[in-house]
Amino acid sequence: MKPPKHILSTIVIAQFLCTSLWFAGNGVLTSLIATLEVGTSLGNITAAVQFGFIIGTLLFAMLTLTDRFSPSKVFLWCAILGALSNLVLVWDGSGTTHILLSRFFTGFFLAGIYPVGMKIAADYFDKGLGKSLGYLVGALVIGTALPHFLKWVSAVFPWQYVIYATSSLATLGGLLMVTLVPDGPFRKPSQNLNLTACFSIFKKKDFRAAAFGYFGHMWELYTFWAFVPVLIAIYMELHGINLFRVSFWSFWIIAIGGLACVIGGYISLRKGVKTTATTAIFLSGICCLISPLALLYASLPVFILFLLFWGMVVIMDSPLFSTLVAQNAPVEIKGTALTIVNCIGFAITIVSLQVIGALETYISHQYMFMILAIGPLFGLLGLGENKST
Fold this sequence. Notes:
Layout: H1 6-23, H2 29-36, H3 42-62, H4 65-68, H5 71-87, H6 96-110, H7 114-124, H8 129-156, H9 159-180, H10 197-200, H11 205-239, H12 246-271, H13 273-297, H14 300-316, H15 318-327, H16 334-359, H17 374-383
């Protein structure tokens, strides 16, 4: 029996509205720092969200919250608490500590939104989960691109309006989820607290292989997204081009990945989840390896097309890996499995970002993105063990 038609669209919309807390805030942080005259960097503020998400997902996974309690209700409460944490940014007298704590707790409560949204989808869509998660992750990708768009918006409206708007949208998303998406038919609640479930699950070979594929994917993904403007700037410097629309192209290079997630989901219905994920991560790895050639020798139109293609394949496999993780996890701890994999994956993104940042002083800029190919290689090795399709 197919779920009602509104279920998937509601999950996607609610996920997008709530994850705006994560990404939309980044677009106004420069204005926030300048207005409040705080002594912290944009990198520290952004990192606070990442660390909050990692700590949140670890705690949620250890307590098996989304498997023991209604995931829609967990989603609602985290949306509300995340919205309130976000609003701390506009309090009078906010200083460095207030801002960092605001971003940390915003990330912490996002742990009850992003992986929980995937858990809710998995509870409804036993078949065709890759397609469903393709829509879900696609919405997240559009949210990731928003900061580049909001650079324009924050120049037109006071930055506080963006904070008010994202908190309001997150609250609305939580209400939509709890009102229109009750617990799914494939949900099997876990009865007992098991603090070791999130670690012992890695003993299962097929689950471990799918998780390792996801980890390799995450090594590349967020570093690529973070360095898209840098890639364009390097190309401009190498070729003496004065391209004014860096934010415009950065938005589209990242945002096109949302379309790729949806396309990949439909392809997986015909070719299989594992085959589609393998193809995507292989192509993404090739992009890493040939990036010096694109930077040094491609014409501007070819270079932009290359980045658009890379922006598609770098994320296309994300919902497919999550599908493999969900399919290979015991049904009673499916939410916990998705959450702990997210936790480790996002921790890896911080390491990758730091490695690339450190290499900037030792390697010519046009060659340093080849290091990202380590992730796709690791992911391919992981997928080689996975028997699921």
